[in-house]
Fold sn-glycerol 3-phosphate transport system permease protein.
Amino acid sequence: MFRRDWLIALAFLAPALILLFGFTHYPAIQTVIDSFWSTARGRRPAVFVGWDNYARMVQDEIFRRAMINNAIYAAITIPASVALALAMALFVQSRILGRGFLRLAYFTPTVLPLIAVANIWLFFYLPGFGLFEQLRGWAGLSPRNWIGSPDTALYAVTAVTVWAQAGFFMIFYLAALQTIPPSLREAAAIEGCSPLTFFRRVTWPLIMPTTLFISVNATINAFRTVDHIFVMTQGGPNNASMLLLYYIYEQGFRFWDTAYASALTVVMVVLLALVGIGQFFWLDRKVHYR
């Protein structure tokens, strides 16, 4: 009977396991293997090159620039998205007129296709005619090319990402806030606790599991952004907005250097794993699950 139960369980799990291995684990293993080989071109087969693809990164200035840009991008988008999502959730959690409409409005950017979001903001940033330029013109400021300037291109893309994903994270915070017992608020009000103290002493510790989940997802999103870059800047000007995943896309699909793209992918996955593990070790000590 025990063996029969195991066979039945494996039969139900087999389709999911096959898909998981075929589309996740096998490509990951193959990517690691390909990173130690050269790229096959025409009749020239791939040859084993060892660590040459990784050594190439040390001399690759664009790779270093992409890493720096990605670090800045992550350092802004992660805390900004978390803070904005929490602020929106606290606002729409309160009893205000039109609360349902506000929740829908905050969540709307999440359901829009990423390409559509990039095109909308491309119109906002359009030099001379965009929304931001119209506002600057009314304020008497000189025109500015937001995505065409090396000084502002990366931050322009960063703003789009925060706007697009904060509404998605807000839903999780809103669900977490609704699980806080009303009796805690009533007891705090009786004791004369201020809203700020209640948030710092009660609300924030109770929603830390949600914060951990959101921060990990925000970190993953910070390293897998490619749609906005592809539509808005294509990594320019002068690689000012080049991010790691878009650089991998260029190497693998534009220049067809799949071996070097595989090595870059391995580095990105290792970085994500290290950052994710660090987040769990640092935030898990602050998480209260009960």
